[in-house]
Amino acid sequence: MRRLLNVRPDGGARLLLGLAPLIAIVLIYLLASTARHAANPSDKLLPTLAAMAEQMRIMAFQVDPQTGAIPLWQDTAASLRRLGLGLSIATATTLILGLLIGLLPLVRATLGPLISAIAVIPPIAVLPILFITFGLGETAKVVLIVVGVTPFMVRDLASHIGAIPEEQIVKAQTLGASTWQIALRVALPQAMPRLLECLRLSLGPAWVFLISAEAIASDVGLGYRIFLVRRYLAMDIILPYVAWTALLAVSFDMLLLTLSRRAYPWAHGRRAP
Amino acid sequence: MTALLAFDNVWLEYGERIVLEKVSLSVAQGAFVSIVGPSGAGKSTFLRLVLGQERPTRGAIRLDGAPLRSEPGRDRGVVFQRYSVFPHLTTLENVLFGLDCEGAAVSGRLWGAKRRAGLERARELLSAVGLSGSQDVYPAQLSGGMQQRVAIAQALITRPRILLLDEPFGALDPGVRLDMHDLITSLWREHQLTILMVTHDIREAFKLGTRVLAFDKRRHDPHAPHRYGSTAVYDVPLDRKAKAAPAAQELAAAYPELATPGR
User: Is the pTM of this model over 0.80?
Assistant: First the structure.
């Protein structure tokens, strides 16, 4: 008998094992939902699949007469715009600050402590400040995402660049590279796969900040809708919305991973294209 | 024989601790100097001084008669035991890197005819180190010995005045190490290089070098071991070897174009 830790599932078995818990959760939900509906046909807590599908049909395909737009797509577009804008600003800032701090001891001495100090502030705690400063519009929500994820990303990227072996940096200098050339040809390419990795890890927190900001003050967005219909105990809308949000998050994660593998094969132990 | 590199009473101290003391020596053009000594005897520190990673506390270092710049530069090439090549560049791009930096200050990358000429030089050097078949792979796909070959070709493309090797073959298998000995010896002859090599292996030091320097402490105070530094306690010229390569020394002054590979 082989040791348990040496049993490795492959191919189909792995897929099956990965799907099993998901299927189990769906089955348990269906059983519980059926049982509750048998006792009380107007149960709102665990809506049936049919009820959720019907609500989603309305949300995804019917124009809301009040706003003149289809709610699901309007919410998705608004949320993704905020998320995209926030993460773009965060990523660009991270790349520039991370390179400067990781590569230049002068900048590290100047900005390192500041970034560390900012990183320990809970971003939600500054949300009131953002609302007061930027108003209740889009800016505050985007800024919350930026403030929430940037310090962590900058610290991670800077330490990754700082960990490039000194031998490589010295070697580049003996080959005549200037500070700029080392940043451009040695540090930047090695920072990129890590930046994408960092962005993937930041997607989770970014969604949290987005939904929080939308829940507190907004008139459109996935988080807004979920917290709006909460008042009517509309689990048949909340659950599909959460699933949709999860699907979006997983797709971005996979998109970023694929991008990193395509663009930086060396960082994933792959051959040159 | 002109002195290419000269140390004049060089001391290196870290606060209380003295690492190197009274190092005075000169290295002739075309020499292959092996540097040996026990661990912690300042061999690598000596190399770091030549590289410009450290600045002497006292004394002066001169390269070609001019004071040495205290930061690494094109005039001193280096091959470390590990991490000498860029993991994100293919073999050919690694070798081309030096020319990219020389020819493109802003973009860091050569274009057009210059790039084609550079690539030709890089390919020549790659075949000189026996790697013409592996130009489009990343270093991680190469064995340790092959990575060191890339690192050597990469260092040679800028035609450094002096090539520094920091235990370059220390991590390699014995068989591979012998191949690398043949390679570095033939490159030294063909390209009229001046080489400083730190090694742990005394046999390697005597086999390759035209001169062997041994670093150790000359004095020892058991109560304050850090107060005495190391210096070159033995300096053994290997004349037989020096005579074996007279052409290298004559030609070194002229510093001609890189010899065609495969000679």
Answer: yes
